[in-house]
Amino acid sequence: MTTRNRIKTLTQFVVERQAEYSQAKGALTRLLNDIATAAKIVNREVNAAGLADILGFEGSDNIQGEAQKKLDVFANERFIEALKGGGECCAIASEENEKIISFQNEFSDLGKYVVAIDPLDGSSNIEANVSIGTVFSIYRRKSDVGPGKLEDMLQPGVNLVAAGYVIYGSSTMLVYTTGRGVNGFTLDPSVGIFCLSHPEMKFPETSNIYSINEGNYIYFPEGVKKYIKYCQEDDAKTLRPYTSRYIGSMVADFHRNLIKGGIFIYPGTTKQPKGKLRLLYECCPVAYIAEQAGGKASDGFNRIMEIQPKTLHQRAPLFIGQKSMVEKAEEFMVKYSPEMNSAKK
Ligand code: AHG
Ligand code: MN
Ligand code: MN
Q: Residues lining ligand 1, judged by CB closer than 6 Å?
């Protein structure tokens, strides 16, 4: 007779972890639960996206004459509702909202966290049935009372209390860290419960995947161009030439590389010197997860987690993944594109 591992749900796991801290009152547990609940609702819509009228452009009417909503707007509303209703946070920064959404909860001792979120990442892939995601950062507020303020949100990644992502793929997973390793939970759709399926996730030692939108090649800095050529050279010892994989959803590209080993790059370009991805709710959360999984995340020169955000929707170049691969790409940046180092300006 074979013995099976006992199923551990996300809720059980988070509660057990938090119980290890004697001063913990369960607020973070409840906050992560709120995020998981919203993720399940978004997952339901994502799964039905091909059937529902929801795929239309925001502002257009569906067959009943009702205004249609794009899935990223729908996801934004669900996460905001869940986070506001849950009472554990006092401000939300979202890719979909220009300013922070700040609020005061009726219970004064609640709401000590702020959340930055990209509710639907890779939204251009929805119509094509390609994996998309949600990415979130959780910080402890800096101010004492009242609705959360912009300063509560503008914190570097090193201050993160927790971060994670949900990937809506061939199966739906929630992956998160609170600074003690990375754990992944797969949604059992028949019962609507996230179950621990990927404990203590680590980047594999050997990797041979590079992910970058090479269509932008002519706009890339010299360091990136040279690194791409390095990836394409023949050298059996270092598993080169590497394999190129690019989904166009950061969460999905990052997740694949975490499982299979690899590097993901969205560099600064001559058109967009700071790249495309947003520091607070795209780069920082995956950077925290990468580091906790034994990997590395940088802007080509500096640790992503140490960049002090100045504005809510600030962008940063991102070089992330298996440690030695990121370090190799950094070598090329330092040698061939030192002018791109924003810390030196
Ligand atoms: P979002 O859908 O939240 O706007 O994010 C899209 C991002 C990211 O997921 C992805 O890695 C990147 O855009 C792809 O950009 P390119 O199409 O320029 O490669
Ligand atoms: Mn995104
Ligand atoms: Mn988005």
A: 95, 118, 121-124, 213, 248-250, 266, 276
pTM over 0.90: yes
pLDDT truncated to tens, each residue of the chain (345 aa)?
555 678 999 999 999 988 776 666 788 999 999 999 999 999 999 988 776 655 555 555 544 444 545 888 999 999 999 999 888 999 999 999 999 999 876 654 568 999 999 999 998 888 888 999 999 999 999 998 888 999 999 999 999 999 999 999 999 999 999 999 999 999 999 999 999 999 999 999 989 999 999 999 999 999 999 999 999 999 999 999 999 999 999 999 999 999 999 999 999 999 999 999 999 999 999 999 999 999 999 999 999 999 999 999 999 999 999 999 999 999 999 999 999 998 876
Q: Which residues surround ligand 3, an ion (CB under 5 A)?
A: 95, 118, 120-121
Exposed / middle / buried, residue 95 (Cβ in 10 Å: 0-12, 13-18, 19+): buried
Pocket test for ligand 1, best of 72, 73, 124, 247 (most atoms within 8 A of CB): 124
CATH superfamily, region 3-198: Fructose-1,6-Bisphosphatase, subunit A, domain 1 (3.30.540.10)
As residues whose CB is below 5 A from the ion ligand 2, the structure lists: 118, 121
| CATH class entry, domain 209-338 | alpha beta
Amino acid (one-letter) located at 14 = V
| Residue spans per domain, the chain | 3-198, 209-338
